[in-house]
Amino acid sequence: MYIISMIKHLFRVLAISLAFFSLVQTTYFWSQPAPPSNIHLTELQSWLKTNWYDGIHNSLGYNEARRQMYGYIDISGGQIECVYTGFTQSGGYVTYPNPINAEHLVPQSFFGSSEPMKSDIHILKPCQGQANSARSNKPFNEIADSQAQWYGTIGNTYTSQSSIPSDADFWSETSGWEWEPQENKKGDVARAVFYFYTMYPNAAGAITEMGPTDILYQWHLQDPADATEIDRNTKVASQQGTRNPYIDYPNLVYDAWLWVAGGNDIQGPDFTGTPATVSVECGNTAAFDNISASPSDPCTPITTTFSDVSTGVGCGGGDITRTYTSQDGCGNVSTFTQTIVFTDSTPPVFTTVPPDITITCDSELPPLGVALATDNCSQVNITANVVLVGGPCPLAYEVHRTITASDDCGNSVDYLQMIYIEASVVVGCPQDVDNDGVVTVSDLLAVLSEFGCSSGCLYDLNLDGIVGVADILDVLAAFGDVC
User: Fold this and answer.
1) CA-CA distance, 184 to 170, in Å (whole number)?
2) DSSP assignment, residue 110?
3) Which of 168, 217, 390, 406 could form a disulfide with 412 if both were Cys (CB 3.0 to 4.6 A apart)?
4) Is 210 exposed, middle or buried (CB count within 10 Å of its CB: 0-12, 13-18, 19+)?
C-alpha cells in the first residue's frame, strides 16, 4: 500500500508540474509543406496563406505574445535588444519591461490594432520606447545620411543626434516621413513585412504603403537570415504555430512578390551603349535636342526621363550634368549620369568698332571708343592693348590700339585701330629750338648734340632725314634773330 501511495503521489506531482509548464510555454509543432515551384505572385501568396497559416495560427493575445517575446523568444543571456538601436536590458515574462516596449514592424494604425495581427509575434520586436515613438508609423526606405536624424546607443544609453555617427551601420535613421533601420536588421524587417502582407492580404492596404517593394527586396538580399533569426522563427512557431516561410525559403520573396514571366528580372534597364560624355557645338540646337539615352531591358515597356543641372559658368554657359532615370515593365529602376560638354570653334564678331583718327601732338590721346562684339556661344570680354610707333612729340608718331574680343570657349578676334599723331607746328623761328625767343649759342649747341642723327631726331630742321651740316648752317644763318 505504501508503494502504491508513493506512486500516486509522484503522478500528482508530475501532473502539477506539467500543468504549470503549460501555463508558461505551450509548444506547437507543425510540418508545413514545401512550397511548389510552378506558381508565383498572388497565387503563391494565397498558397502560402492556406498551407502555412490557415488552421495553423494560434493567436496568443497581445499580453501573452509580449510575455513570450520578452521571456522566451527574444531573450539571450537574460537580455533583450531593441530592433532599431541595439539598446539592451533585462528581459522576463512580463508585458512591459520599461523602457522597452513592443514595436509593430507593420504599424497598428495600418490595421486598426485588430487581432490576430496585433499579437502576431512575427511582426513584433522589442524596441526602446523613444525609438518606437520616433519611428511611429513611417514607411521604410533608404535615407540620405547627410539629411538624417539618427537613433542609436552610446554606451547602451539611447541617443538621438543629427550628425552622422562613426558606427552609423548600427543606428537607425529618419528623414521626412520615412524610416531606415540599422543595417543588420533590414532583412529581418523586410521578411516580417512580406510575411504580414502574405498572411493578412486584406488587413492593411497595399504593401507599398510600407515602403518600395524593390527596396524591401534588396534588404532581404543584403541581410539574409542569420542563426538568431532562424532560431526566432522556430521559437515563434512553437508558441503560435506559424513559421515565416520567407526565412525558411528565402527565394520565395522573389517568387511571391517580384517574379517576372520569362526570367528573374530584378535589374533595371541597361545603359550600355549610352556615352558618358557627349560634345555638342555651341548654338547647334538640333544636335542638342537629339542627345538621348537608349537603355535596354527584356521586360518592356521601358520609360525614361531625365533632368539637367548646369554648372552655370564656362563655355556655352557651362557643362550640363544629365541624369537619366529608366524603369522597365517589371518596375525595376536604374539611373545613368551623362555629361554634356559644349564646344565652340567660332570666334566673336565685332559689330561696332572705333574708327581710325588723326590728332596733333598737342592733343590728348582719346579713350577707347565703343567696341561691341557678339558670340554664338557665350558672353564676350573686350580688352585693348596700346603700342606707340615713332615720336615723341613734337615729332609725328602712331598709336596702334589692338582691341581683342574673346569668348568663354577660348576663341578670340582682334581689331586694330590706328591713331595718327601729327608733328607739332613750329611757331616763330624753327632755328630757335629751345624756344627762348632768340637764336643763340644754346640753339647751335642743341643741334650739334644731335649731329649725325638719322632716326627720331628732334633737330632735323630741314627735314632731310639727318642732322647734318645743313642744319648747323641754318642755325648760323638765323643767329641773333628774335623770334
Assistant:
1) 7
2) G
3) 406
4) buried
Name residue, grid cell 632716326: 455
Distances (CA, A) of 337 to 322, 395, 397: 6, 66, 60
pLDDT, tens digit, for every residue of 154-177?
A: 999 999 999 999 999 999 999 999
- CA-based torsion, 111, 115, 121, 124: positive or negative: positive
Which residue spans within 163-311 are E strands per DSSP? 172-175, 178-180, 277-281, 303-310
pLDDT level of residue 232 (50, 70, 90 thresholds)? very high
C-alpha atoms less than 13 angstroms from C-alpha of 298 in its C-beta half-sphere: 8
Residue 207: predicted pLDDT: 97
Please tell me the distance from the alpha carbon of residue 420 to that of residue 424, in angstroms, as a whole number: 13
Say if pTM beats, i.e. exceeds, 0.70.
Answer: no
320 C-beta neighbours (distance < 10 Å), count: 19
CB 397 within 8 A of CB 390: yes
Measured CA to CA in angstroms, residue 398 lies from 154, 391, 415 at distances of 81, 8, 16
> Going from the N-terminus, what domains does the chain have, and what CATH number goes with each?
26-257 (no CATH), 277-343 (2.60.40.10), 349-422 (2.60.40.10), 430-483 (1.10.1330.10)
Residue for grid cell 590728348: 364
| DSSP per-residue string spanning 270-330 | B-TTS-SEEEEETT-HHHHHT-----B-SSS--EEEEEEEE--SSGGGS-EEEEEEEE-TT
- Phi then psi for residue 350, to 5 deg, are -70, 135
Q: Are strands 88-90 and 79-81 parallel, antiparallel or unpaired?
A: antiparallel
CA dihedral 358, 363, 364, 367 (to 10 degrees): -30
Are 409 and 365 contacting, i.e. CB atoms less than 8 angstroms apart? Answer: no
pLDDT higher than 70, residue 245: yes
Residues with Cβ within 8 Å of residue 473, at least 6 apart in sequence: none
pLDDT band at 266 (very low <50, low <70, confident <90, very high): confident
Return the C-alpha cell found at 123. 511582426
22-51 pLDDT per residue, tens: 334 444 445 789 999 889 999 999 999 999
* Sign of the torsion angle spanned by Cα atoms 294, 299, 303, 304: negative
CA distance 370 to 173: 61
Among residues 161, 157, 224, 167, the alpha carbon closest in space to that of 191 is found at 224
Cell of 155: 554606451
DSSP 117-159: GGG-GGGEEEEEHHHHHHHTTPPB----GGG-EEEEEETTEEE
